[in-house]
Amino acid sequence: MKKFAMTVGTSFLAASLLMSPAQAAQSNTGPAVPSEQQLSISGFMTYEQMQKRLDQIVKNSQGRVEVQTVGVSNQGRDIYKATVGTGDRVILIESEIHGNEKTGTEALLNILQFLGSSNSPKAKQIREEVTLVALPKMNPDAAELDRRGNAMTWAEVEAAFPQLEGVTPSWNYYTRTLQGTNYGELPGFDVNRDFNPDLNYEPKAEDFPGNSASPGWFITPEAQTARDVYLDLQKEFGNVDVFVDLHHQGPFMKVEGTDDDVTMSISAQFVPDPNTAAGEKYSEYADAYDYDFSRQLNVAVYDALQIGNSPFKNISLYQQGLDLPGTALGSFALNGSGTVLFEIRGQTQSFGQKMRGQLVKAVEDGLYGIIEGVADESVYEIDPEEYEDIPLTIR
């Protein structure tokens, strides 16, 4: 790993591709995209702007925030990790593994700025009790292309993994130009289907093309980087206590039993519990998996967004009963992390600047619910059954 060094990213803008994890197509032709979701990213932070902001955060922090290059994307952009705090409890937060899902990056940088620069009792307690690790633009090529998938061909996969030569490309490989996307000219992968609960897994030809209910393969440099960060934290601290993945969902979701638009969907579950019959195939991970802690963390998010006159009260549960071991959430949950999915409303490009700011603030407030709850240990006192009282998201 190397310390932060400024490089200039090339900016590419294309129409966005929005899909929830459950909607991803199980073929190599790429998913369909509703036309109303083809939106501009004007006003969101570019890769180069993120680099400059990280540089400024480091300077303002007087040594409290460290930024390192931890990997390189397929197109050669550095992938950054920012760390603040010295506590024993580790919180790892990832944003923009889907490059057209951008509010999390803004929220993370705001949190890093506060924790790095503030001398308030709140900031001091968090820094003393927690080590916060942020991957603010996990998939920078996709972020600059304003699309879900990275930029990588199957030929490049075969070159990196000769044992895969001639096999059918993985199901999450997008190759078709469709409704504003450009995968026909520049193919790529849904990186958030390239994870495997076996963190030391090496790709095998017999595991392709796979499907959404099967583990991934760590064939993309972006997924490899996230995996390596996770393994390094495990080695240093013994465990990654919390993993949070920041995403977007469509703007048309409702809170079950109401006509209210969902501000954000959250979830604690992306694989069935290995301690149950439904999760028996994951039995080797049964001792590590902690669904109750994941539920406690999600309740902490929900509670944080119900306080006072918050405009962000419409929080609901993302689709439950999923089995997605190829996602970062599923993989890291099986390895012992409490997990939380954030699915903020819409591609916020479809709203004005004020709404974008409000949704970024909703992500921040939800994250502080986790961070403060872990720092002051209040999250461990939450009844995990309260999770079951959170209303569902409906389409």
From TrEMBL:
InterPro entries: Peptidase_M14 (IPR000834). Residues 43-374 form the Peptidase M14 domain. This is Zinc carboxypeptidase. One of its GO terms (cellular component) is extracellular space. GO terms for biological process: proteolysis. The keyword Hydrolase applies. SMART domains: Zn_pept (SM00631). GO terms for molecular function: metallocarboxypeptidase activity; zinc ion binding. PROSITE patterns: PEPTIDASE_M14 (PS52035). Belongs to the peptidase M14 family. Residues 1-24 form the signal peptide. Gene3D superfamilies: Zn peptidases. Its cofactor is Zn(2+). Keywords: Carboxypeptidase, Hydrolase, Metalloprotease, Protease, Signal, Zinc. Pfam families: Peptidase_M14 (PF00246).
